[in-house]
Write a structure and sequence with these properties.
Elements: H1 2-10, H2 24-34, H3 37-45
Amino acid sequence: MGGYYYLMAQLPALSENAPPGISRQEFLRLAERFLSPPDWSLLRSLSLVPPAGEARTG
């Protein structure tokens, strides 16, 4: 569990008026070092892009 805290401590601060201080690829490289294999697999499967097509949303 300590690796997760260390990972979060490595992330740069976020600001509304500034671009992110780290790219998605940089974040993934960093996260891979600290996450367990199941959590790494879950993280890699996440996306903010909705699926294409006519999916029902409720």
